[in-house]
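Arp2/3 complex 34 kDa subunit, pasting as requested.
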Amino acid sequence: MILLESHSVIIQTTLNDKFTKPTSLDIQFVDYDGVRFHLSTPDRKTALLLSMNIRCWDELVQYGAMEVLKREYGSLVQAQVEPDYNVSLEIDLEKAPPEGEERDKFVESISLLKRNALAAPFELAFTTQKQLEASGSGQGDLLQIHYRDEEAIYIQAATDRVTVIFSTVFREETDRIFGKVFLQEFVDARRLPTIQNAPQVLYTNRDPPLEIRHISGLRDSEDIGYVTFVLFPRHFANPDVASATISHVQLFRDYLHYHIKCSKAYMHSRMRYRVAEFQKILNRAKAETATTERKTATKDTSQSDCLINNDPSQPHAPNVPGTILCNPPFQRATFISQVGV
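Structure tokens follow.
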């Protein structure tokens, strides 16, 4: 199955192009989860302004998003944010790293703006878990990230784990069925010896997990499901492992719905193919008609269609099975002589 990329391909491609040939720019686009971006050159061609608007920005700031972005981007983070956006980065193409591996890393880092902002609550939960593990008791605060309409991510640290809960809405009945099948595969796959160390995955429909049942305003309908990931310390034991875990878990909701849509598209294409094949069979099953030719006094050639009628219910036919029908009728004798009836 395809794994979605954490970085924005549009940002990455645009930056690489502008390093090669700086030009005026004004691009607006939308990423997963309704996150809006604006890439522009308001002052000069070599100064790119990248702005982002994300629905859950206030919650992310509460969990340390600005600290994470300043750690990753330093002076690129602008104090004056573009109107209608939450955060802005200014990239001076003249001061960027030289061409090569260093520049590639710089461009990739810029394209991970959304990922880095959403990483703040995960990093906070991982830090809290280590503190609780050292103290030997207690439970961290429940972190809530309402990143989509009617959907949210809930993160809570404990002494031996970090629990991540996704609430996801299935708009259609078929989506709910496909989602249940996919999520059951996640549960069953963990039984394989090769992936015993994978996070535990739990799925419930309609009923929220115990960790979030006390939250008011949760939806109670058949179209909502809850997916729980249980992350153990080995899943964020060092910075590299923790970074990979955050990148993959963040995109789970988009990953799930992407493959649901792909599966539906594949099934529709297969159904259309089968219908086309059945249509060919029906076309081959049509009765063949015999065609005779006659010449008129002026040497013109006309065609006559005749067939043997085995259906006495045919209109204008004698009520005798096997009656020969011809058009025009006076060609019956010619047809009989030709076929040897």
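Note for the archive: The mean pLDDT is 84.
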